[in-house]
Amino acid sequence: MTADDHIVFIVDDDGRIREALGELLESHRMRTIAFESACDYVRADKPDLPACLILDIELPDINGLDLQRQIADRDHPPIVFITGHGDIPSSVRAIKHGAVDFLTKPFSDADLMAAVHAAIAEDRTKRSERAELDMLKRHYLDLTPREREVLPLVVSGLLNKQAAAELGISEVTLQIHRRNVMQKMAAASLADLVRIAERLEIPITHSRRVGGN
Length: 213
Hints:
Layout: E1 7-11, H1 15-27, E2 32-35, H2 38-43, E3 51-56, H3 64-70, E4 79-83, H4 88-96, E5 101-104, H5 109-141, H6 145-155, H7 160-167, H8 171-184, H9 190-199
Parallel strand pairs: 1-2, 1-3, 3-4, 4-5
Helix pairs in contact: 6-8, 6-9, 7-8
């Protein structure tokens, strides 16, 4: 891991804590940006990199747990909470809503670094999954209206003859559309196309009928 392929955000109103965390992380070749309030963090332009958010619970403008709730629906870095006043309900709430860890001051450097590394690894995975989904959506937009009708019939398990009858087209035409769908969606197999349809949450309203040919 190099300092230019990730970022660690620090949000803590205590300047001494921000400085100490920054020095620790930078000694491990981690790039950091520190903020003294949740508002400053939310408003700031942030590098588009795998990241971790080290977030204090008690902040001057908003509770860290409330900030976690407010940004839950956005693409935000995994959170490592730090606090000088930890309690079980707060830690349970934080972890339940996706926090990587909940550390009570004073915590060890090893515990913090382990949590930060886990958070950045988690964010890398999420970013990769989002990128793959965006690519699949672009492929789907390349399909013609008819091909978008064919796709759910194919992944539902209908035979070519059944799917063709469903659309009122010939089996040969159905096969052409099916081949185009496989190519445009970059599906290596039917199983792969089924996985893609699941990722795109394409409704499957038909199922293979027993006795079909």
